Amino acid sequence: MNRTLLLKKNLQRAKRKARVRGKISGTADKPRVTVFRSNKHFYAQAIDDVAGVTLAAADGRAMGLKANKEAAVKVAETLAAAMKAKGLEKAVFDRNGYIYHGVVAAFADALRENGIQV
To answer: Hey, is 28 helix, strand or coil?
Structure first.
């Protein structure tokens, strides 16, 4: 892929990310669930933006998973269990500039299926 095209794609994602982050914020009782997907792995965490701390996290790489829909569902199950252990039932979903499609949508749906209101 051309270097300038790659820089343009990253800049566009950064703009989308900033636009979304300007509208949502997480608290201690309703954290922001954010996702990161690379070409190989998928990660998610629940963040309290008021205190600036991560309340729960799930790492697909540490679980030995790839970046596909099945892996996203397993990451969502792990994150939901960690959030429930801390007494968190509701969250605000931050797609982190990614299109709500494929792996990101599968993660959000699986999070809902595991009892977290997103």
So the answer is: coil
Give dist(CA 59, CA 78) in Å, integer: 9
SS3 content of the chain, % helix, strand, coil (to 5): 40, 20, 40
Alpha-carbon distance of 49 to 64, in angstroms, equals 29
Torsion angle, alpha carbons of 102, 108, 110, 115, to 10: -170
What's this model's pTM, rounded to 2 decimal places? 0.91
Q: What pLDDT digit, counting tens, does each position of 10-29 carry?
A: 999 999 999 999 999 999 99
- Quote the number of domains for the chain: 1
- Does 11 fall in a domain? yes
